[in-house]
Each structure stands twice: as C-alpha cells, then as structure tokens.
Amino acid sequence: MIINTARVELVLMNKAIPANYLEKELGINRSTITRVRNGERKLENLTLETIMTIQKWIDEGNYRFSYDYSELIEDLEEDIAEGLTDEYIYVVRGPYNELLEKCPIIDYYYTSEEIEEGDLAEKTLITSVLAEMKSDNKIF
Questions:
Q1: Domain boundaries of the chain, sorted by first residue
Q2: What does the pLDDT look like over 26-37, one tens digit per residue?
Q3: What does pTM read for this prediction?
C-alpha cells in the first residue's frame, strides 16, 4: 500500500464530512478526527494503522478528489458549439497535483501553430479531454 499523506490529511480535514460519519465508516474514534481538525493533534502523530485505514478507504473509491474545471469545460463546450475546434486539440498540463495524482489540464489550443513558446502541449481527442475534465470536476 502506498500512503498519500496529502490525501489522508484532506479527508480528515474536510469538515464537509462529519466526524461521526468517518467514525462509522472507518472505525476511527470521532474525538481523534475532531482533535486533528481542531489542530490539537497532528497527522504525523496518528498511528500507522489509522493512516492505513484511511488510505485503504480512499483506495476503495469511497472518496473522490476533484479539480475545478468548470470554467475550462464551459469555454471548450462553447468553442465546440461555435465550430472552432477539430476532432483533436492540444492540451497544456500544469505541474503534478499530488491530490489528483496527475498533471491537470490548464489550457488548450486548436492547432499546433498556436502553441505558445515554452508550453508543452499534447495532441488529444477532444472527447477524451472533455471526459477527463468532467470526471475530475465531479464532487462526491
């Protein structure tokens, strides 16, 4: 098992997930979760077993990490509707995002001639680009 401490911490610190829900789901004492959230206990002071339990829960698909692609999706869908795109576009990815465990799409170009100096862009099917962004944009 590979433990992604950034992901584990995000789950514990996400106050949108009630501590009693995590207690029920994970079998971790609610007071432990509350103390971490209140800064009374540090993540690195949790037992390895507790951290492994949270990571296993994440790995089983019980929590999904998202990226806000709303504006980029809207722009691309408008460009498609206006007929500005082809079957392929050139996507530019940002730096590695530890929570997503990949490099998110940060921009796109219609043709290789438009790619700005210094940008690395990959030619990708437009349907694949939209599918990736929509999948990563979902909040569960």
A1: 5-59, 70-137
A2: 999 999 999 999
A3: 0.67
CA distance 139 to 38: 24
> Residue 109: which H helix or E strand, with range?
strand 105-109
- Do 52 and 3 meet the contact criterion of CB atoms below 8 Å apart? yes
C-alpha distances in Å from residue 109, one per residue of 8, 50, 83: 35, 45, 14
- Backbone φ/ψ region at 61: left (φ over 0), alpha (ψ -120 to 50), beta: left
Q: How far apart (Å, rounded) are the C-alpha atoms in residues 77 and 30?
A: 43
> Which amino acid is it at 49?
E
**What would the pLDDT profile of 62-110 be if each residue is shown by its tens digit?**
888 888 899 999 999 999 999 999 899 999 999 998 888 889 999 999 9
